[in-house]
Amino acid sequence: MTDNVLQEFPEYNDNYRAGFVSFVGRPNAGKSTLTNALVGEKVAITSSKPQTTRHTIRGIVHRPQTDDAPGSQLVLVDTPGLHRPRTLLGSRLNDLVIDTLSEVDVVGFCIPADEKIGPGDRFIAGQLNKLPHKPVVALVTKTDKVPRADLAEQLIAVDQLGREHLSSEGRQADGFASIIPVSAVRGDQTNVVTDELITMMPTSPPLYPSGELTDEPERVMIAELIREAALEDVRDELPHSIAVTVEEMLPREGRAADKPLLDIHATIHVERDSQKAIIIGHRGSRLKQIGSGAREGIKKLLGTPIYLDLHVKVTKEWQRDPKKLNRLGF
Ligand SMILES: Nc1nc2c(ncn2[C@@H]2O[C@H](COP(=O)(O)OP(=O)(O)OP(=O)(O)O)[C@@H](O)[C@H]2O)c(=O)[nH]1
């Protein structure tokens, strides 16, 4: 930690709490939406399609010191969905998730209130059981989608899941450290989630300056925004096949200082010619749509006008080829 960080926190004292929390859960469980709700600004990318969060994206919750509580900082590490691997990419993602989890202070296991607990959840619980010293909080998400009676039943089922699957030797107590129902969309109980997570953080000096919401490199955020735009309205098989790389970001030469323009060159990678055709669309109409969709988000992120140059490339079988995976940054 730099001295700069401490200068920003004159009230910092020995009771200050700060640490890392990571949300896991099967695809679509509501991890990104919850991250955004806790941080209060859009940092992670959400989509109604599963498995869009491939990169570790952090958001930071700052709580200033009050008469009742010391100041605190919660660093949210948003991981890809932990899921049963079917491809090499799948198993790489799982390794990445386990690595991330071994370094955080608390794991938040997101389980939707409106879906029955299934093999995917039991798989995740089994993986978490491999980290016996890691406290796990169950977050029962999307509570606005179910009647109270169904929620009560789900809470009991979640408790059961914890008792059955989080019981390795060395675990302080069997099961979840706590179970919290929450609706990120309505903002119900989001404060309770923050409070509970903060009490579980170690005493520590602040980890990040207060203005910082995310330390994800801009390039990765930009690639994610393009990927999100490309995933709008496409068929179900496509999401797994798309990756985006940002090739170049350069300020346009010869522009007046008060009228800057940033040129961004990016590539959308697909696996097959047929998918390339879908992405490009009739006479390039879909690609144009993707470009304008992504441009808005990128402009907002960078706070400057941009020119987005998009290419589509067939990178065959990239999900299964280790060399290609490395080149795409996985
Ligand atoms: N009604 C309701 N919908 C929610 C809530 N939280 C998330 N959703 C919806 O559930 C879907 C999935 O949410 P995400 O936050 O993208 O889920 P995720 O777990 O990050 O998904 P992956 O990135 O695929 O792992 C989206 O359509 C959200 O709008 C909630 O509290 N209430």
Automatic annotation (TrEMBL):
Molecular functions per Gene Ontology: GTP binding; GTPase activity; ribosomal small subunit binding; small ribosomal subunit rRNA binding
Main location: cytoplasm
InterPro entries in UniProt: G_ERA_dom, GTP-bd, GTPase_Era-like, KH_dom-like_a/b, KH_dom_type_2, KH_sf_prok-type, P-loop_NTPase, Small_GTP-bd
Span of domain KH type-2: 234-316
Localisation per UniProt entry: Cytoplasm; Cell membrane
UniProt-annotated stretches for the region G1: 25-32
Region (G4): 141-144
GO biological process: ribosomal small subunit assembly
Pfam families: KH_2, MMR_HSR1
G3: region residues: 78-81
Entry GO terms, CC: cytosol; plasma membrane
Membrane-topology annotation of the record: Peripheral membrane protein
Keywords: Cell membrane, Cytoplasm, GTP-binding, Membrane, Nucleotide-binding, Ribosome biogenesis, RNA-binding, rRNA-binding
PANTHER family: GTPASE ERA, GTPASE ERA, MITOCHONDRIAL
Job description of the protein: An essential GTPase that binds both GDP and GTP, with rapid nucleotide exchange. Plays a role in 16S rRNA processing and 30S ribosomal subunit biogenesis and possibly also in cell cycle regulation and energy metabolism.
Name of the featured protein: GTPase Era
Organism: Nesterenkonia salmonea
Lineage: Bacteria, Bacillati, Actinomycetota, Actinomycetes, Micrococcales
